[in-house]
Structure formats: C-alpha cells, structure tokens
Design brief:
9 helices, single chain, elongated, 41% helix
Length: 227
Amino acid sequence: MSRGRRARSKTSSTPICRSKSRLDSYLAVGHPIDKIELLILGGTWTAYPPDYQEWFVRRCLDAMNDTTSADLAEAQAVNEEATSRNVGLVIETRPDEITFPVLARLRALGVTKVQMGAQSLDEHILALNQRGHTVAETLQACATLRAAGFKIVLHWMPNLLGATLESDHIDFVRLWQGFCPDEIKIYPTQLLEGTDLYTFWQQGDYHPYSTEELVNLIADLKPTIPP
C-alpha cells in the first residue's frame, strides 16, 4: 500500500475479491490507496502454471483498475493511469526455482521483488532438514536476481534440526557474505505434531529453544546487520 502500506493476497480462486477487500479495508481506516505494493505470498509461486500466474496477476490488477481486462497486457496498460497504481509486485519462491526463463516470465508479469526461503546457509543443516536445495543455489539465485534488477528478500530460520544457538550466530553472519539481501525475514522453527521434526523431538534428538533463548538470539543478531 502507499506510504508503507502493502496489499497482501494469498493465492486463491478469487484474487480480485481478495484484492478489492484489502483495498476497501485500507480506505475504511483512512489510508490512501494511490500506490500499491502487491505481495502474493505462500508456497512456490513459480511452480504454478504460467497461464495461472498471468490470470492471477491480471485479476489483482483488475481490482485496482476497477475493470475487467481481456488479458494481462491490457490490465497493465490500464493500470498505468489508474487511481490505484501498482508500483511493486512481490512473489515468493525457492532458490532452486530461479532460472533465466523464470526471470523473463516474472519480468513480464511485472514482478519487482522476489522472496526466497534460504532457511539456512549451512549445507549440513539444509541436508538434515531435507530442504532440497544447496547454499550454492541460493548464492547463484541471489546473483542472478540482482543482475536482473530484482529486489531480494531472504527468509532465514533459526533452531532448525541440527542447529545450535552458537551455529545460528555463525550462520546469520553468512547472509552478508555474498548474499546481501535487500530485506530479511526471520522465521523461528515451529514444532508441529505429525512432522518428522516432532518425532526427532520425542526421541530427544531435537531441542527447541526456549522463548528467552530465542529472544536473546534475535537481539544479539540484529546489531550485526550492516547499514
């Protein structure tokens, strides 16, 4: 949303309804909606079929334009002079999904910022947690996105299986060693019943941080973030 407000839309069958509802809610509390940063969050956006991606973005733009467009190009053209203009489009994906064809498609959609679940920059931790991608792939994805002009948001998870407070301190510093995201999101690992991690915890092979440990960890890490 303009002036720091962001319209968030989860992938669903009714993107226009969700987007309109969010715009209306901002208007109702007095926020201007002349400039919109649209965040499409949840899952791996690039894994959806291209025609679905185009349809979804088109319908979000239709909500801002208050029209029904024939295709994405028309929705984008109308939005250039709409009352609510889309000035930023953010999607979420995985590092191993970043390829040149994918970036070309994202550019055509109007994407300006990409969020990626790096989770950890330790190969051993990634393998233990069956993440399915490597640190090298995350680094390559960051370099490719940056060269293509996209803003980068990396997700980082403390307290993964195999991690310790000390190793998380070391791992966090790696974010500024070549990766250098424009933004970060810190997602502490949650212990959920029915998962492999829950079984490891029951067996004594996983130890969740206490609330105090987690708060102190984040407080210690924040001053290490460069200007």
